Structure formats: structure tokens, C-alpha cells
Amino acid sequence: MIAGWNRALDLAGIADPGLRSDYAAAAWWMARHYPALHVCGRLLVPPASQPHLLAAVTATLFGDGLVDDLDRPCPGARFPAWAAEVRRGLLTGRAGDPLLRAFLHTLAVRRVPHLDVHLYLAGQAGQAWVAEYVTDQDHHDYVERVAVPTIRLWLAGLGASAGTRDEPLVRSFTDAIQRLDDLADLSADLRHGKMTIPQSDRLHYGVARADLESGRDTPGVRALLAHACRKARASLAAARADHARAGPEARAIFHPFLPVVDQLLAIIERQGPALTRHGVIWHARPTPGLLAAALGVVVSRPPLLAAGAARRPR
Known about the structure:
Elements: H1 5-11, H2 17-33, H3 35-44, H4 50-67, H5 79-92, H6 98-109, H7 114-127, H8 136-158, H9 162-165, H10 168-184, H11 186-191, H12 199-204, H13 209-213, H14 219-245, H15 248-254, H16 257-271, H17 288-300, H18 303-306
Helix pairs in contact: 2-3, 2-4, 2-6, 3-17, 4-6, 4-7, 4-8, 5-7, 7-8, 8-10, 10-14, 10-16, 14-16, 16-17
């Protein structure tokens, strides 16, 4: 069912033993820190694209983790050094870290414009000191400055063309997945002093930040979290509408992921106030429901994606 990793490396044209070790390190990091995401990538993506996708996802999530060190004395202090290493790597093609070496090789193979990487780094740097959203505009700013550049790099790892990476579907899908991610990571964010549920929404439902931080189960907390889930559902509906209007390549690439996002959101919706006490998705092992959704997509995926048609940009 899941293609062997060595076969995936062979199909991706990665023959150098050192590079194969670097890509294995990236895949291992992903499997260790984001097992559900790792399994979805291995199940839903053609084997030839898996190493490059995992390299892009691992690098961007590693950087995201450095920015999110809000519980340290100097939040995000490690990110500038890592970003500088990335920029040096873009200039020299070399790096000391295996995760970064795999990422740089993928950028070269997929012919990713360096501007895309610089936009991602600049967006992340601007978030290092953001500890609380005041209104929903803060969410939209994050999506535009960080999440969309991140997804564009993931799409490049898949081999999507430049035109596909600019589709409206990219923005709407990113908005949906970011709202889902904020809910999935709510408990961890609260522990680290970060609040992604806007203050304006909390005031509307009469919920204090302390109510969420202490994990209280009140009617206001339930209503607030249900409202956040409805916003995620609305974003997913917008992504589905854009998917229907998108070009063939974009439809093929996003087709497997929309039902999986739907399943993930259903898991979150069932948690209610428990979301404030423990995470439910990315860092946990895949649930039977998630695996069933992923396997269902594998069976029904369109021929374009099944053949690995996400191509290298020209």
C-alpha cells in the first residue's frame, strides 16, 4: 500500500548515498514529530514526489517550530540563525544540517524561485513576537504572510507548476487548513502563551483568556469553539468551490486532501472544550477515521494524480 522509501527515492531520481541519507533524515523527523501528516503524505502522494514533498514540509515545519518558542525567555530567538543558514544555503547550495540539505536539493530539482523561500522566511520572522490575535484580520495576515508561502513551497515539492501555485484554490485551501491547524494546536499554543482565537470573538462570547488557559467547560467556551469550527467549515466550503473552478493540475493535486481535511475537522468538532486541554491531530498517531478517509481517497484518486502527474515547473 505505502511504497517503500527506497523505491520512492529511486523514482525521485535521488541516487547519491549522502542525499538519500539526508532525505531519510527529513522523513524520519516528520514521522517522529507529525506522524499523522507523514502517513497522509505517504498514502496520498505519488512515490516519485514523496521525498521532495517531505523535504519541503519538514523544513518549513522545523522553521515554524523555532518561531513558536513563545515559552522561552527570548521567543523565536533561534529562528534568525536558522534563517541565515537557509539564506547561505540558497547562495552556496551547501548546508551542515541534513534536513536543510534535502530541502536545498529539492529547491534546485524543482527549480523553485528563491523569492518564494525569502517570502516564507520574512513572514515567519514577522510572527516571532505575535502572541495574541486581536481580530480575525490577524488570522488573514498570518495566512498571507506565512501560510500561503509555506503551502506554495509544499506545492513546489510536489512538482506543481507556477500557474497552479498561483491558483485562488491555494489561498482558500490554505485558509481552511490554517483554521484547522489553529484549533488542533490550541492546547499547545495556550501552554506556550499564544492565543489564535481572536480577542474580538472571545469578547463576543464572554470568554476570558483564562477560561481557555484553564480548560474550563462553560457554555461560552463551547459556543466560542463551535464558532471557530464554523469558520473553518466555511473556509473549507470556499476551497471546495475554488476546487471546482480550478485548472486540471490543481484539481488533481488538491483532490486527495479535501476529504482528509474534512475528516480532520470532524475530529476537532467532536472535541469541544477538550481542545483546550490536549491536541488531537498532528502530533498524535493517525486515527482509524483519518486512515479510512485517506485510504478511500487512494482508491478513488483521479488518474492524473495517481500517475504522478504533478510535474516539475518549466
